[in-house]
Automatic annotation (TrEMBL):
Keywords: FAD, Flavoprotein, Oxidoreductase. Residues 415-427 have a biased composition (Pro residues). This is Ferredoxin reductase. The keyword Flavoprotein applies. It comes from the Bacteria. The keyword Flavoprotein applies. Transmembrane segments: none annotated. Residues 6-311 form the FAD/NAD(P)-binding domain. Residues 407-427 are annotated as: Disordered. The lineage of its organism: Bacteria, Pseudomonadati, Pseudomonadota, Alphaproteobacteria, Hyphomicrobiales. It comes from Methylobacterium variabile. One of its GO terms (cellular component) is cytoplasm.
Length: 427
């Protein structure tokens, strides 16, 4: 492969780690990374935390090791299409990059407010990239009278925590019953709600915003609520999740849609008939693949650790072949810091029918919850109790009987209850 060309579509974490792994595994050919942003790959977790509070400048988030990578960079150049037959990546500036192998790592973008006219009002922000964080930090520096956050997922909650740390009034609205309920369920989410409210957040569960209104001069001033009522705000953060960047693959015959790019266990992209494309791979937020720990059902993860591990796995499959690489089976893991809480998770809670507090106690602010389905262990979530989490990795991998660890001297009485998770989404 010395004279081959590998193109990486997407110059963020998964693309960077994939490119690094290619070099580390001996690839000496031409390596090109294409990114739609004008920046070298940067770390996203600080954007909703330290960047908003002013502790870190947006430009100080560049990932380590970037400048030492022996690669060509095409930054500030979005991809626009793919010529599968001609093995070429098409660029928005009219360029065309031929490849022998392609790694798709185009990630995801923030889901915008659905009404485009309302979304253009001044003072409305999303939070996904470096420019988003810089613009939001600038808006917060102007000391708005009221910040409204639409959505109580991880980005919405982390942003609320950072904004409260600045001493600004914050209202969070979400149609769900508790913060983070889609991922952690109502039982753990209710604990987070208490912390939010103790920090001074005006949290309103079960609340849906129907439209946003301006002041006549093009700036947002209030949000109208379903069922009547309104919330005045002069800065709004739209935190409604993410949209995977697959639009540019329309018409290529690959299995790609709003749910991601479908891959096999070796990260090879599948075509519409489910056949692997030998020269095209995917990794990171944009990829959807069958997870062997969860019955082979397709999963797509927006986790930092998954982007790192899957980028490296795709590189191995490219160079050594899918059989040598084996099936990608990294255990899903994520973390979040908000309202003085350090939340860490192993496994996927989706589909769980029971949860039990297996260590600690929510009343003390330190505990671990374990999730099960049909008597088997699916996942564990620690809150300010990360030292307990590693013990649950092997039981999760083995789908051990739920709950998997009992009889500990420091364990509370285990009382499994329904976790209050939403019904699983269709793949």
């Amino acid at each position: 492969m010395r004279n081959e060309t590998i193109v990486v579509a997407g110059a963020s974490l998964a693309g960077l780690r994939g490119a690094e792994a290619l070099r580390q595994r001996g690839f000496a050919g031409r390596l090109i990374l294409v990114g739609d942003e004008p920046y070298l790959p940067y770390d996203r977790p600080p954007l909703s935390k330290h960047v908003l509070t002013g502790e870190i400048a947006p430009g100080a988030t560049t990932l380590p090791g970037v400048r030492g990578l022996d690669a060509e960079w095409r930054l500030g150049t979005p991809v626009s299409g793919l010529d599968r037959a001609g093995r070429a990546l098409l660029l928005a500036d009219g360029g065309r990059l031929g490849f022998d192998r392609l790694l798709i790592a185009t990630g995801a973008r923030a889901r915008p407010w659905p009404n485009a006219d309302e979304a253009r009002l001044s003072g409305i922000h999303t939070l996904r990239g470096r420019d988003d964080a810089a613009a939001l930090a600038s808006g917060l520096a102007a000391r708005p009278a009221r910040v409204l956050i639409l959505g109580a997922g991880f980005i919405g909650c982390e942003a609320a925590s950072s904004i409260r740390a600045l001493g600004l009034p914050v209202t969070v609205v979400d149609p769900g019953p508790a913060p983070l309920a889609r991922t952690l369920g109502h039982v753990v989410g209710s604990f987070v709600a208490g912390r939010m409210q103790a920090a001074g957040v005006d949290y309103r569960p079960g609340t849906r915003v129907t439209h946003l209104e301006g002041d006549g001069a093009g700036r947002v001033r209030r949000a109208r609520l379903a069922g009547g009522g309104a919330i005045d705000a002069d800065l709004v953060v739209v935190a409604l999740g993410a949209v995977r960047n697959t639009d540019w693959l329309a018409g290529t015959g690959l299995a790609a849609n709003a749910g991601g790019v479908s891959c096999d266990g070796a990260c090879r992209v599948l075509d519409a008939a489910g056949r692997p494309e030998a020269a095209i791979f995917a990794a990171g937020d944009v990829a959807r693949w069958p997870h062997p720990l969860y019955g082979g059902r397709p999963v797509a993860l927006e986790h930092w650790g998954n982007a790192v591990a899957q980028g490296a796995h795709a590189a191995r499959a490219m160079l050594d072949g899918p059989e040598a690489a084996g099936a990608y089976a990294e255990l899903p893991a994520f973390w979040s810091s908000q309202f003085g809480l350090n939340i860490k998770s192993l496994g996927l809670t989706e589909g769980a029918d029971a949860v039990a507090i297996a260590q600690g106690n929510p009343r003390t602010g330190r505990f671990l919850a374990v999730y099960g389905r049909a008597g088997r262990t699916l996942a564990a979530v620690s809150v300010n109790a990360g030292r307990w989490l590693p013990a649950y990795e092997a039981p999760i991998r083995a789908a051990a009987p739920f709950p998997p660890i009992t009889g500990g001297a420091d364990q509370p009485a285990l009382k499994p209850v329904p976790p209050g998770l939403p019904a699983p989404r269709a793949a």
